[in-house]
Amino acid sequence: MLQGWSWGLLLGNLPGHMGEKLSEQQISDDPAGRRSHAAGESNDVEHLIEELRRRTAELEEANRELRRVSHYRSLFLGRMSHELRTPLTSILGFTEILLDQELLTEAQRRFCQKIQDSGLQLQSSLDQLVDLSRIEASRTEIFLHEFSLREAVRDSCTAIARLAHKRRVKVDYDLSPELSTVVSDKGRLRQILYSFLAWCVSRSAAEQRVSMQVSIAGKTHLSFRLEDEGPSIADPAKSFDPDDRTGSRELPNLDELGVIIGRRLLDMLGGTVTLENREGGGARVLIDLPVRPAKEQ
């Protein structure tokens, strides 16, 4: 009896399992089912491709709009600079004439000196704005030629002497006897050195010292070492990027903007710059620049 019941139970359940297996096999072997599944996958792929095309078109339009905005900004800065330079040149010229007069009282001379200093600062700001705009628009031109490095360094230190004297900061430099000529952009190199020297001077208090040492590293690279005695820097890695001032309303001042431009000009000349704190206080700027461009070596 038990044996008959077991076989009956097995035989009773067998057709049901066979029916399920047959049903699954029929579905998988059905050509219409396969076509329907393939059509669904094809529609999904086409939808993804269409979405990708739409997103690509949106990005291209956004890039075109950014280029237009950058172009209009460059035009505006160029025209604004031209419109401001014309009266500013006259102001500086007449101020220079007045300062050459011996009949000025002490107060009048002090007022004229203030006008001249403010005019020169405005002129420097305009130059930096135009330079930054050209760099961002990839329109900055580099003119490579051979020149005396000693002369370029002396010119930069002479140019910074006025600012250093005003702040009563001592500036000195030491040149390696091996220095001779380099192949680079002399004007841009002087601008870079002036920017970093001005930044060091602006951080220094009266009677403090700013020094610069220039030497050759491995006969292929120039090494510039600038040091000041100002306060330590909270985060040296973020000093070259104004976008890192997240959550702060403080904007880069004139000297900080010059450092940012100097760093970008160094990139164009194939150089690098590192900013670090000194152990005894102050900051250190390490600039590495090839003696000749890569294509010249």
- Coarse morphology: extended
Order of helices and strands: HHHEHEEHEEHEE
Low-confidence stretches are 1-24, 245-252
Rg estimate, integer Å: 35 Å
Q: What order do the strands of the largest sheet run in, or round the barrel if closed?
A: 2-4-5-7-6
Strand coverage percent: 5-15%
Distance between the termini: 102 Å
Structural class: alpha+beta
Give your account of this protein's structure.
- There is one protein chain.
- A hairpin with a 3-residue loop joins strand 4 and strand 5.
- Helix 2 runs antiparallel to helix 3, helix 3 packs parallel to helix 6 (254-268) and helix 5 runs antiparallel to helix 6.
- The chain is extended.
- Residues 1-24 and 245-252 have low confidence and may be disordered.
- The chain is of the alpha+beta class and 297 residues long.
- The protein is built from 6 helices and 7 strands, in the order H-H-H-E-H-E-E-H-E-E-H-E-E.
- It has helices at residues 2-29, 31-99, 106-136, 149-167, 186-203, 254-268, and strands at residues 145-148, 170-175, 181-184, 209-217, 221-227, 272-277, 283-290.
- The strands form 2 sheets. A 5-stranded mixed beta sheet has the order 2-4-5-7-6, with helices on one face. A two-stranded antiparallel sheet has the order 1-3.
